[in-house]
Amino acid sequence: MTPADLSLTVLHAVRRAVGEGALRAGTRVPERVGIERPRPGGSGDWATNAALQLAREAGMAPLGVAQVLRPRIAEAEGIEHVEITGPGFLNITLADRSRHALVREVLDKRERYGHGDALRGRAYRLVHPGDVRATVLAEAVRALLRAQGAHVHDERQDDPREGAPRHDARPRHDEHHDGHPHATRPETVTLRPLPAAHDVAALGPDAARWALLRPAAHDRALAPDGLLVQSEANPLFTVRYAHSRARALLRNAAQLGIAPAYEEDVAAPRLLAALGDHPAVLEAAARHRAPDRVARHMEATADAFLGFQHTVLPLGDEKPSAAHRSRLALAEAAGTVLAGGLALLGISAPDYL
Asked: Residue 128, class by beta-carbon neighbours within 10 Å (0-12 exposed, 13-18 middle, 19+ buried)?
């Protein structure tokens, strides 16, 4: 169950509570509720502040709203139990079968896992000054917005000679939507990152894009030093190496006659959490025009996978089992998420490194 799925589950519980009279009639149901990892001291897989968000509208204390919502959320498929913590946070633990569904979803959707329709019906026109960092940022933001269902018109560049945005007299439509005109007036988004202080062209396209996208737009681009070093000190190498290791495990498993199949729960909480977070990270990165969020998430996913990879294949005389098939499926899912995230940044994910 992804954060987006869980958000819909919570909203369904709110609608039920209003319809059944457990919450005051007329309580406005929000379009979305926040789903995040539990805070320090919290429990479960996910947490939501929906009760705090609804308290004033419902005319109740947050704790009272949480007590109304808890059993209704707990009844949903894929939920093991729900606990109330603090002033009214709902901490949600997923059933093991939801972890199975997570891995299956990644493997079914492949590199489109995490793509959604959160911004469907929205249209944007990107404006930027045209320097190399702004151009690369605009390309990544365009990819992220499209991955969430938004329509993105061709970019315009600020014209430094005239001090005003420059655009074609006749609007051009985004071929991503089969050339059909978009009915919504586009929202203009100005991207003006801090210009790169170094010439990154000599790094090649992948390292150059990482240098320009990994820091937030208001921070300095990364200096070229170390970005071509093949060691764990270089986060880009670590991310791409983790992807290549996932692919190597699949090749080695095929030689042993092992096929990936998630048949039983795997004790890899960090990696499963990283995969489950992926859709929420992509949506947030699109909403905030922040590809750096994707880059940081790729680093966290790679670290979690590299800490897990040594358990995937049988060792010595150990015979292949359902546990190995499940770990292999999780490794394949990790490699898929890494490839998909890098693709949105315009960075390649080689099978061999």
From this structure: buried
Q: Is 0.90 topped by the overall pTM? A: no
- Contact between 155 and 171 under an 8 Å Cβ cutoff? The reply is no
Cα–Cα distance for residue pair 187/121, rounded to 1 Å: 12
Q: Please name the residues in contact with 61: beta carbons below 8 A apart, sequence gap of 6 or more.
A: 55, 88
CA-closest candidate to residue 278, choices 110, 158, 26, 124: 110
Reported as a single tens digit per residue, the pLDDT across 10-30 is: 999 998 998 888 988 677 888
What is the C-alpha to C-alpha distance for residues 350 and 310, in angstroms, rounded to an integer? 20
Query: Residue 122: which residues within 8 A CB-CB, separation 6 or more?
Result: 149, 150, 151, 184, 187
**CA pair distance 295, 277, nearest whole angstrom:** 13
Is there a contact between 94 and 78 (Cβ–Cβ < 8 Å)?
A: yes
CA angle 276, 277, 282 (to 5 degrees): 125
